[in-house]
Amino acid sequence: MHEVDMTKALILTVRDWWQAQPQAPTVTKIHLIVGQFTCVEPASLRYAFQAQTQNTFLAGAELAIAEVPLVAFCHACEQEYSPQIGTQYTCPTCQSPMAEIRSGRELKIDRIECTQRSPPKDNPVGTITKSAESRQVE
Ligand SMILES: [Zn+2]
C-alpha cells in the first residue's frame, strides 16, 4: 500500500527533525503538502499515520493535508493547463502530450506545530526553603 510506505518515510523524517530539537517538543500538528499527481489518498494517509504513530512520540499528533492540483506546461502553446488525472493529460489546445509538470508532484512537510515543554526555570532553590526556617519557640 502506497500510503503506508509514504507514512513510514514521513515519520522517519519528522523523527530526525524531532531528535535534533534540544527540548524534545510535543508535536501537535504536521502540515503536509500533497500533490494530486502523487495519487496519495488523504484519507488513507491520515489513517496510516494514525495507525503507525500509536505509542510513539507522535501519538495524538494531527495530520493537516493541503492538496496541490496538477498543473502542466505546454511548450508549444507556452501556457499552463490543468490535466484531468486519469483521463486526459494532453494539452487541451494543441493535444501535445504532457511534457512538463509545474506542480502536483509535491509531497513534503510544510511545517510542524509543536508545544515546547517549558524549560526549567532557574529559581534558586533557596527562596523556597527560607520559609521553612521556622524558629523553635523556647
Ligand atoms: Zn499546447
Task: Please give a structural write-up.
There is one protein chain. The protein has 138 residues and is an alpha+beta fold. It has a domain at 2-69 and 102-117: hypothetical protein PF0899 fold (2-Layer Sandwich), CATH 3.30.2320.50. Helix content is 25%, strand content 27%. The protein has helices at 2-20, 42-53, 126-129; strands at residues 26-35, 62-68, 71-74, 79-81, 100-103, 107-115. A 3-stranded mixed sheet has the order 2-1-6, with helices on one face. The longest helix has 19 residues, at 2-20. It is elongated. The termini are far apart. Residues 123-135 have low confidence and may be disordered. The site of zinc ion (ZN) has 7 residues, from loops.
CATH class of the domain at 2-69 and 102-117: Alpha Beta
Q: What is the correct CATH architecture of the domain at 2-69 and 102-117? A: 2-Layer Sandwich
Strand content: 25-35%
- The helical percent reads 25-40%
Looking across the biggest beta sheet, what order are the strands in? 2-1-6
The count of strands amounts to 6
Unreliable stretches (pLDDT < 50, length at least 5) are: 123-135
Largest sheet: 3 strands, mixed
- Span between N and C termini? 80 Å
Q: What is Rg?
A: 25 Å
Give, in order, the helices and strands.
HEHEEEEEH
